[in-house]
Amino acid sequence: MQIKLQTKQIALIALYAALYAVLVVEVPGLSYGPLNLRLADAMLGLVPLLGIAGVLGHTLGVFVGNLPSPFGIIDLLNTIPSFVMAFVVYYVYKRTKNDYSVLATSVAYSAVLGTTVGWMLSAPFNIPLPLSILYIFAGNLVVTTLIGWPLFKMLKKADVFRWLQDQHSYPQPNQKVDQK
Question: Are 42 and 139 contacting, i.e. CB atoms less than 8 angstroms apart?
Answer without folding.
Answer: no
